[in-house]
Design goal:
Elements lengths: L4 H5 L19 H23 L5 H10 L4 H4 L4 H4 L3 H19 L4 H11 L6 H24 L6 H14 L2 H9 L8 H5 L4
Helix pairs in contact: 2-3, 2-8, 2-10, 3-8, 8-9
Amino acid sequence: MKGNFFAMMSRMKYIERWALMKNTAQENVCEHSLEVAMIAHALAVIGNTRFNKDLNAEKAALIGMYHDSSEIITGDMPTPVKYYNEEIKNAMKEVECVANKKILNMLPEDMRESYKSIFFKTEEDEYLWKLVKGADKISALIKCMEEMNTGNTEFRSAKASLEKSIDQMELPEIEVFIKDFLPAYGNTLDELSNPNE
C-alpha cells in the first residue's frame, strides 16, 4: 500500500454525487471538494478579518479538500439514507472512520502524522471542522441553486432543507458568506465579468 495515497485520491473524480436525483449537470466528489476547500478557506478568512479570530485558513482549505475522501471507498451515500436514523448515522460514521484510516495508511509512515489532523478531527481544530461542515452545506446549496436555475425542480426540497440546516448552524462567517457572496451564483457570465454595467 505504500505510495498508493495520491493515486487513490485521484479517484475522487469517479465518485458521482446526487445519485438519486435527476441532474442537468453531473458533479463528482473531486469537483465538490475543491469548492468546499475554497469556501472553507473564505469562511476562515472572514472569521479573521471581520470577527478578529485567529483561524488557520489554509488548514480549513486542506480539511475541505479531503473531507469526503472516505467516499472513494464507501461511495456517496444519499443523504436520506445516511441520516435516516441515529443507528444508521452512527454506523456510517464508523464506516467513514475505517475508510479514512485505510486511506491514511496508504501514506508512507513518516508522512502520516502530517495528514492525520486533516482526516481526523482534533480538539484544536474543532471550529475549522465546523466551518468545513458549513462550506460543505453551502456547496450543496449552490448545486441546488444551479439546478433550479435550469428549471430542474428536483432539487427544491434539498434546497429548502439545506437553507434551514445552514441557518441552524448560527456561524457568523457563514452568515457573511451567504449575504455577500451567495447571490452572485445566480448571475450570468456577463454579469460576473462586468458588475458595474
